[in-house]
Amino acid sequence: MTTWHEHAIFWHVYPLGALDAEPVLEEGAPVTHRLPRLVEWLDYAVELGVSGLLLGPVFTSRSHGYDTIDHFEVDPRLGDRADLDALLAAAHDRGLKVVLDGVFNHVGSRHPLFLRALEGGPTAPEAALFRLTWPEGGGEPAHESFEGHEALVALDHDDDGVAELVTEVMEHWLRAGFDGWRLDAAYAVPVPFWQRVLPAVRAAHPEAYLLGEVIHGDYAGFVAGSGVDSVTQYELWKAIWSALNDANLYELDHALTRHGEMLETFAPQTFVGNHDVTRIATRLTDRRHLAHALVVLLTVGGTPSVYYGDEQAFEGVKEERLGGDDAIRPALPERPADLAPYGWDTYHLHQELIALRRRHPWLHRARTAGLTLSNEVLAYEARDGENRLVVALNISDEPAEVPVVGTVVAGQAEVAGGAGTRVPAHGWAVLEP
Q: DSSP assignment, residue 80?
């Protein structure tokens, strides 16, 4: 059975940053209705060509959204439930699906359940929800945290109450009309936990898209074991910018081979930018190769996403320090018309490549095969059954010839002879043989 997410292309937005929310939620702070501003950007997303909104954290949290305080309420720095419902309705009216970001590995240290556990002691029902070590003779317990961040309190995924809570949260918002979940830090949660939770969610909402954040390891094994639809394809992300920067397209070719192996069992979620990494326009040492990165993203198998601002060549460096994410999670202007003029060429390039992908929806499960490979030139075939495109990338200072002739459907190239096509220096082309 075909599902909507088989041909989805997402615009990934981090609302707390994009809508310029305060960095910390102060106790008793009034509701600030920022979410309606995001409605102003939906037509921009539709014109970009995407079909879904991958929405970062919107639930009540203390700071960055991943320290959840209440999974059932909208963060007052963003608005209220009516604002979120209106955003969902406006997106659906435009044909955009909306996927939420759920943090189910841990909660913020101000979560009421954690506070009640501390107050009630080791026999409190809430204490079983967390991995706590109580000192002899009384006193406050030590708690396990997420990657050493004390404000992120790890849940005990062996506890039935945690499974019930996560199931309830996921089903609550799917019943409200949302179309799926990105499962934050899914790699940190034991696979047996997902095996307990996701079948019930899937049974009630078979069309929901379930995406797990997984950085390293056996992606296909995680998908098979957990029951998610997809995971974040960090291997390909790294190979794209690294191969372009190092003039080592062998690395990209190798990553595409591994990517093809994954496509045998699932469609990875692909990206060249997200809320946790340095902007692609900054990461690349030669801005001329930004197009090459986008071409790969939008011509290989998977479910691609475009991180807000990347389509305008936003810049920003991820730093490992307090506040180190601020530069990659900036505020958007009030409306698209207020964007700086220098980013629109990149926006139009995104439009061209997204339109190409939508004309060839089979690319979702396409496999690639190399045709020409050197340090600075790579031509690969993207194929699914009888459907076929050829992608040629040239990052050298000289024109390059690739052994294929066809119609150029994107980029620039010219016939070099009876059996070849010439791609300009630092150029690219997509051909239909």
A: -
